[in-house]
Amino acid sequence: MKVMIRRTDAGLSAYVPKKDLEEPIVKLENEDLWGGTVTLKNGWRFVLPDLPPDTRLPITVEARKISDGV
C-alpha cells in the first residue's frame, strides 16, 4: 500500500492516499524509521521498506499493512 511519510511540527505523519487518511506516527520500531514497523494513532501498523537513514522526507513508499488496530 502506498504511504507518504512526512515530518510536521508535531512529529512524523503518514498519509494513505487510497483511504484519504492522515495520522500521526506514534510508535517507531527503529529510531531511524526505515526497515521496521510504525504504528499510527488510529492503531494501524505498517512495515516500512529498508531505506538509508538519511532519506529525505516527504517520501512515498510501498509499505505493508500488518494491523488494523482492532
Automatic annotation (TrEMBL):
Q: Which Pfam families match?
A: NifT
- Origin superkingdom: Bacteria
Among InterPro entries, the record links this protein to:
NifT, NifT/FixU_barrel-like_dom_sf
Q: Quick one: a GO biological-process term for this protein?
A: nitrogen fixation
**Designated name of the protein:** Putative nitrogen fixation protein NifT
Q: Which organism is it from?
A: Mesorhizobium tamadayense
